[in-house]
Design goal:
This protein has helices at 6-12, 18-23, 103-107, 122-126, 144-163, and strands at residues 41-44, 51-58, 61-69, 80-81, 88-89, 94-100, 111-117. By secondary structure, the chain is of the alpha+beta class. The chain has one domain.
Length: 171
Protein backbone atom coordinates (compact mmCIF):
# COMPACT_ATOMS: atom_id res chain seq x y z
CA UNK A 1 0.00 0.00 0.00
CA UNK A 2 1.21 3.50 -0.78
CA UNK A 3 1.66 5.84 2.21
CA UNK A 4 -1.43 7.90 3.03
CA UNK A 5 -1.80 11.34 4.52
CA UNK A 6 -4.39 12.40 7.06
CA UNK A 7 -6.11 14.36 4.28
CA UNK A 8 -6.25 11.26 2.01
CA UNK A 9 -7.70 9.21 4.84
CA UNK A 10 -10.40 11.70 5.83
CA UNK A 11 -11.45 12.19 2.19
CA UNK A 12 -11.86 8.42 1.66
CA UNK A 13 -14.75 7.73 4.06
CA UNK A 14 -17.99 6.68 2.38
CA UNK A 15 -20.21 5.82 5.35
CA UNK A 16 -19.71 8.91 7.55
CA UNK A 17 -21.03 12.42 7.48
CA UNK A 18 -18.55 15.24 6.88
CA UNK A 19 -18.73 16.13 10.56
CA UNK A 20 -18.04 12.55 11.66
CA UNK A 21 -15.14 12.32 9.22
CA UNK A 22 -13.69 15.55 10.57
CA UNK A 23 -13.88 14.27 14.17
CA UNK A 24 -12.60 10.70 13.71
CA UNK A 25 -9.27 9.82 15.28
CA UNK A 26 -6.68 9.34 12.52
CA UNK A 27 -3.49 7.50 13.61
CA UNK A 28 -0.69 9.83 14.61
CA UNK A 29 2.02 7.39 13.51
CA UNK A 30 1.33 7.44 9.76
CA UNK A 31 4.99 8.11 8.93
CA UNK A 32 6.09 5.03 10.91
CA UNK A 33 3.55 2.57 9.47
CA UNK A 34 5.03 -0.37 7.50
CA UNK A 35 3.29 0.75 4.28
CA UNK A 36 5.07 -1.80 2.10
CA UNK A 37 3.60 -4.62 4.21
CA UNK A 38 0.04 -3.26 4.37
CA UNK A 39 -2.81 -4.29 2.11
CA UNK A 40 -5.14 -1.89 3.93
CA UNK A 41 -4.86 0.61 6.75
CA UNK A 42 -6.84 -0.39 9.79
CA UNK A 43 -6.90 1.05 13.29
CA UNK A 44 -8.95 1.20 16.47
CA UNK A 45 -10.10 4.50 17.93
CA UNK A 46 -8.11 5.04 21.14
CA UNK A 47 -10.89 7.24 22.56
CA UNK A 48 -13.66 4.76 21.77
CA UNK A 49 -12.61 1.08 21.88
CA UNK A 50 -15.77 -0.07 20.09
CA UNK A 51 -14.88 1.93 16.97
CA UNK A 52 -12.45 0.96 14.25
CA UNK A 53 -11.63 2.22 10.77
CA UNK A 54 -10.47 0.55 7.57
CA UNK A 55 -9.09 2.30 4.48
CA UNK A 56 -8.19 0.39 1.31
CA UNK A 57 -7.84 0.90 -2.38
CA UNK A 58 -10.76 -0.61 -4.26
CA UNK A 59 -11.26 -0.28 -8.00
CA UNK A 60 -8.59 2.42 -8.22
CA UNK A 61 -10.32 4.50 -5.55
CA UNK A 62 -9.41 4.92 -1.90
CA UNK A 63 -12.36 3.83 0.28
CA UNK A 64 -12.60 4.29 4.01
CA UNK A 65 -15.26 2.84 6.29
CA UNK A 66 -16.10 3.35 9.93
CA UNK A 67 -16.67 0.09 11.80
CA UNK A 68 -18.35 -0.81 15.07
CA UNK A 69 -17.13 -3.76 17.10
CA UNK A 70 -19.59 -6.13 18.69
CA UNK A 71 -19.71 -6.10 22.46
CA UNK A 72 -16.74 -8.01 23.89
CA UNK A 73 -19.18 -9.99 26.01
CA UNK A 74 -21.17 -11.15 22.96
CA UNK A 75 -20.87 -14.87 22.32
CA UNK A 76 -18.86 -17.47 24.16
CA UNK A 77 -15.12 -17.11 24.63
CA UNK A 78 -13.44 -19.40 22.12
CA UNK A 79 -10.84 -19.39 19.40
CA UNK A 80 -12.04 -17.60 16.29
CA UNK A 81 -10.87 -17.08 12.72
CA UNK A 82 -10.60 -13.78 10.88
CA UNK A 83 -12.67 -13.92 7.70
CA UNK A 84 -10.19 -11.70 5.84
CA UNK A 85 -6.77 -13.27 6.53
CA UNK A 86 -7.87 -16.63 8.00
CA UNK A 87 -5.70 -16.20 11.11
CA UNK A 88 -6.96 -18.12 14.13
CA UNK A 89 -6.95 -16.14 17.38
CA UNK A 90 -7.50 -16.91 21.03
CA UNK A 91 -10.64 -15.44 22.61
CA UNK A 92 -10.89 -11.70 22.02
CA UNK A 93 -8.53 -11.72 19.04
CA UNK A 94 -11.32 -11.58 16.45
CA UNK A 95 -14.32 -9.30 16.57
CA UNK A 96 -17.49 -8.94 14.58
CA UNK A 97 -17.13 -5.54 12.95
CA UNK A 98 -20.11 -3.92 11.31
CA UNK A 99 -20.29 -0.88 9.08
CA UNK A 100 -23.26 1.21 8.06
CA UNK A 101 -23.71 1.03 4.31
CA UNK A 102 -22.93 4.11 2.26
CA UNK A 103 -25.67 6.34 0.86
CA UNK A 104 -29.43 5.97 1.18
CA UNK A 105 -29.18 2.34 2.26
CA UNK A 106 -27.10 3.33 5.27
CA UNK A 107 -29.47 6.18 6.05
CA UNK A 108 -32.20 3.53 6.33
CA UNK A 109 -30.06 1.69 8.87
CA UNK A 110 -28.65 -1.08 6.69
CA UNK A 111 -25.24 -2.43 7.64
CA UNK A 112 -22.83 -5.20 6.75
CA UNK A 113 -20.58 -7.11 9.13
CA UNK A 114 -17.68 -9.53 9.06
CA UNK A 115 -15.24 -11.10 11.51
CA UNK A 116 -11.86 -9.29 11.46
CA UNK A 117 -8.69 -9.46 13.56
CA UNK A 118 -9.45 -7.19 16.51
CA UNK A 119 -6.21 -5.28 15.97
CA UNK A 120 -6.79 -5.02 12.17
CA UNK A 121 -3.25 -6.33 11.54
CA UNK A 122 -4.27 -8.92 8.94
CA UNK A 123 -1.52 -7.85 6.53
CA UNK A 124 1.17 -8.42 9.15
CA UNK A 125 -0.19 -11.85 10.16
CA UNK A 126 -0.19 -12.93 6.50
CA UNK A 127 3.44 -11.94 6.06
CA UNK A 128 4.61 -13.51 9.34
CA UNK A 129 5.56 -10.08 10.75
CA UNK A 130 3.15 -10.55 13.64
CA UNK A 131 2.04 -13.74 15.38
CA UNK A 132 -1.24 -14.56 17.07
CA UNK A 133 0.48 -17.45 18.88
CA UNK A 134 1.22 -21.08 18.11
CA UNK A 135 -0.98 -22.95 15.63
CA UNK A 136 -2.77 -19.84 14.41
CA UNK A 137 -2.10 -20.15 10.68
CA UNK A 138 -3.70 -22.89 8.58
CA UNK A 139 -1.38 -25.12 6.59
CA UNK A 140 -2.09 -24.15 2.98
CA UNK A 141 -0.48 -24.85 -0.36
CA UNK A 142 -0.92 -21.21 -1.39
CA UNK A 143 2.10 -18.96 -1.66
CA UNK A 144 2.34 -15.86 0.52
CA UNK A 145 1.47 -13.72 -2.52
CA UNK A 146 -1.64 -15.82 -3.23
CA UNK A 147 -2.75 -15.42 0.41
CA UNK A 148 -2.20 -11.67 0.14
CA UNK A 149 -4.26 -11.55 -3.08
CA UNK A 150 -7.03 -13.62 -1.47
CA UNK A 151 -7.18 -11.24 1.50
CA UNK A 152 -7.17 -8.19 -0.80
CA UNK A 153 -10.09 -9.77 -2.67
CA UNK A 154 -11.99 -10.32 0.59
CA UNK A 155 -11.38 -6.70 1.63
CA UNK A 156 -12.56 -5.49 -1.80
CA UNK A 157 -15.70 -7.65 -1.58
CA UNK A 158 -16.47 -6.28 1.90
CA UNK A 159 -16.03 -2.69 0.70
CA UNK A 160 -18.17 -3.42 -2.39
CA UNK A 161 -20.97 -4.75 -0.16
CA UNK A 162 -20.90 -1.43 1.73
CA UNK A 163 -21.05 0.75 -1.35
CA UNK A 164 -23.45 -1.33 -3.47
CA UNK A 165 -26.93 0.07 -3.92
CA UNK A 166 -29.78 -2.10 -2.77
CA UNK A 167 -31.50 -4.34 -5.23
CA UNK A 168 -35.31 -4.38 -5.17
CA UNK A 169 -35.20 -7.70 -3.31
CA UNK A 170 -33.30 -6.20 -0.34
CA UNK A 171 -35.22 -2.96 0.10
Amino acid sequence: MEPLTERDIRASFVNCTKGETKRLAVPTDLVERPWGDLDFLGWRDPRSPQRAYLVAESGGTLLGVALRLASPTAGQPRRSMCSLCLTIHNPGGVSLMTAVKAGRSGQRGNSVGTYICADLACSLYLRGKKSAGPATRLQESLTEQEKIERTAGKVAAFLASLTASDSPATR
